[in-house]
Write a structure and sequence with these properties.
With 349 residues, this protein is mainly alpha-helical. The protein is 62% helix and 4% strand.
Length: 349
């Protein structure tokens, strides 16, 4: 299912609840976002070039620094820049920035291979995610699986174990291996080798890069330039993705009532972050707006929220420990209570 805005505009909003006459919903709200879905080409190149250059410089310094604590600091800074770099790639793949640029095509396709996000498998799974946000989906295609309490009670021990593992905090912390290397690269290749040959290429090139750094420099260099920043960036990225579609006040929408509008507003969160983290995460915290209109460049998301009143009262979360704990507790959808509940709560009902 495509997640393009044109498809959004064709959604039937007849099942939506009544709203005040002056509040825009559905097609009207989507249309209100259209002025912000126009990229400023010079601004896009400014953000992309500075982000990639900063990443290269910081990781180079992390490899050359003579003192390991300094290497660690630079490596963690590199991890944050990796998150921002990924958001530029994410926007390019959505068609929000730098379309029809051969240079951008080359930059982002090479980046996708190096960063364990080959374009074929990532785009296919991410398309699926945008087309199924806010729905019950026991599979992990493009997202973390989500069961109802009834499905959980009827599931086998093996199905329950698989579900717990996929949504466990340790699995998300190990996103370098579990999400990026395994789910985005290895699984698609094993299922359809001819279609996802670039997934094998991505794993091979990424591994070769680490091996080359170990051989020509040292393991210390490979660790601080690739392994540590990738591990931190993938963990943070995996959690951001998880938390923005698995939170305490998330609402699951029935297939009959589902629309892109409702999925964006009711099943996608706004993550409150300070200015520095907003920059490093490429404004991905404005996730409800991104799901409403994927063609809005990441640097225009705050502008869209400030200009459209209907987008200014979203369900919020943050990186505060309390909010993180609540996101991980929101494990199952209770159809009777119409809210997310924990495994423990599901057992007691």
């Amino acid at each position: 299912m495509s997640f393009q805005v044109q498809s959004d505009l064709r959604q039937d909003d007849s099942a939506l609840p009544e709203h005040s006459a002056d509040i825009r919903i559905g097609k009207e709200l989507l249309i209100a976002t259209q002025p912000f879905a126009r990229e400023i080409r010079s601004t896009s190149w400014k953000h992309v070039s500075t982000t990639f250059i900063l990443l290269f410089v910081v990781l180079t310094c992390a490899g050359l620094a003579p003192w390991w604590p300094l290497q660690g600091i630079l490596s963690l800074l590199g991890a944050l820049l990796m998150v921002r770099t990924f958001i530029t790639y994410h926007d390019y793949m959505h068609g929000a920035i730098l379309q029809n640029s051969r240079l951008a095509w080359l930059i982002f396709h090479v980046y996708g291979i190096l960063a364990l996000t080959p374009t074929r498998s990532w785009k296919k799974s991410h398309n699926y995610h945008h087309g199924h946000v806010g729905m019950i989906n026991a599979s992990s295609v493009g997202a973390f699986p989500l069961m109802t309490t009834e499905m959980w009670r009827n599931a086998s021990k093996l199905e329950r174990l698989k579900y717990r593992i996929e949504r466990h905090p340790l699995s998300i912390m190990a996103g370098y291996l579990t999400v990026f290397a395994f789910s985005i690269c290895l699984l698609p290749f094993l299922r359809r080798p001819m279609q996802h040959w670039d997934s094998l290429l991505s794993i091979s090139v990424h591994t070769a890069l680490i091996a080359a750094l170990c051989w020509f420099a040292s393991f210390n260099v490979a660790f601080f330039v690739v392994i540590l920043p990738m591990a931190v960036a993938c963990a943070l990225g995996s959690y951001l993705f998880f938390a923005q579609h698995s939170f305490k006040r998330m609402h699951i929408i029935s297939p009959e009532a589902w629309s892109f509008y409702r999925a964006a507003i009711e099943s996608s969160s706004y993550m409150k972050l300070n200015k520095a983290m907003q920059w490093f995460t490429g404004n991905i915290g404005y996730h409800h707006i991104h799901h409403l209109n994927v063609r809005i460049p990441f640097y225009r998301l705050p502008e869209a929220m400030a200009a459209i009143p209907e987008l200014q009262s979203p369900v919020t979360t943050s990186l505060a420990p309390k909010d993180i704990a609540e996101c991980f507790k929101a494990s199952l959808w209770d159809e009777n209570l119409q809210r997310m509940v924990s495994f423990q709560a599901a057992k007691s009902t």
